[in-house]
Design a protein that fits this description.
- The protein has 2 helices and 3 strands; from the N terminus they run αβββα.
- It is α+β, with helices and mostly antiparallel strands and 131 residues long.
- The protein has one domain.
- It has a 3-stranded antiparallel β-sheet with strand order 1-2-3, with no helix packed on it.
- A hairpin with a 5-residue loop joins strand 2 and strand 3.
- The radius of gyration is 27 Å and the shape is flat.
């Protein structure tokens, strides 16, 4: 019965990995629910998860240019990158006591980093292969 010697240990490994994955997903879900309730806690009555989002408005939107320095093998490149800064106001209302409050948040958005092309890729772009 060679298949039992192979099947049982691999089945045990799969079950233990599945249980570990289930615990990780479950704890992440509980953590996110707890954070959501804490974020909407009423400052007046202190109940967690009582705040309902009434309105969300963008109060300020700015675009600015950052100069990033990239150091390569033989040279140093300085390139402009546009950064967006956004300020939002979220208006909440407590569903228990009716208290209204405002939270202000700021977001900064940067474009993702681009991978620098290797010399072979640059050469292939400049001189495409003919068919």
């Amino acid at each position: 019965m060679w298949w039992a010697e192979v099947l049982y240990p691999s089945l045990l490994i799969c079950v233990s990995f599945g249980a570990l994955l289930l615990v990780a997903v479950g704890s992440s879900y509980v953590w996110l629910v707890w954070l959501g309730k804490r974020a909407t806690k009423c400052p007046e009555c202190g109940k967690s998860g009582a705040g309902e989002l009434v309105e969300s408005t963008v109060t300020d939107l700015r675009a600015r240019t950052e100069w990033r320095t990239r150091i390569g093998l033989f040279r140093q490149d300085v390139s402009p990158t546009q950064v967006l800064e956004e300020t939002c106001e979220d208006h909440f209302k407590c569903c228990h006591c009716g208290h209204e409050w405002t939270k202000t948040t700021q977001w900064t958005r940067r474009p993702p980093e681009r991978k620098q092309a290797s010399p072979e890729e640059k050469k292939a772009r400049v001189f495409p292969a003919r068919r």
